[in-house]
Design the sequence.
């Protein structure tokens, strides 16, 4: 996949991706109370803590880590009130092809 950002610079190329298991949760209060009763990717809502469903943005810190803005994956602002917005610090570990979450801020 090649994407050009607003016509500036060369196109970007996606060379790899990381996938988090659906059962990835971070400490915190229950979340997902307004998602309905049907399981989501095998996980029953509401969740007992905060889901880590993906990241909306990554920013390189310059020391080998990245700041990552959490995305709850809920889809609408109306059902996201109990999700805590977080920034995680990630360190990519290319050897085993894993991403390790260092901590949330």
Sequence:
């Amino acid at each position: 996949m090649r994407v050009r950002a607003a016509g500036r610079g060369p196109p970007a190329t996606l060379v790899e991706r990381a996938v988090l298991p659906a059962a990835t949760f971070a400490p915190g209060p229950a979340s997902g109370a307004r998602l309905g009763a049907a399981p989501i990717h095998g996980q029953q809502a509401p969740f007992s803590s905060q889901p880590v469903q993906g990241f909306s943005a990554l920013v390189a810190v310059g020391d080998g880590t990245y700041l990552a803005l959490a995305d709850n994956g809920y889809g609408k602002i109306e059902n996201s009130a109990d999700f805590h917005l977080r920034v995680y610090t990630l360190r990519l570990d290319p050897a085993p092809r894993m991403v390790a979450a260092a901590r949330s801020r």
Q: What stands out?
A: The mean pLDDT is 81. The longest strand covers residues 87-93. The chain has no helices and eight strands.
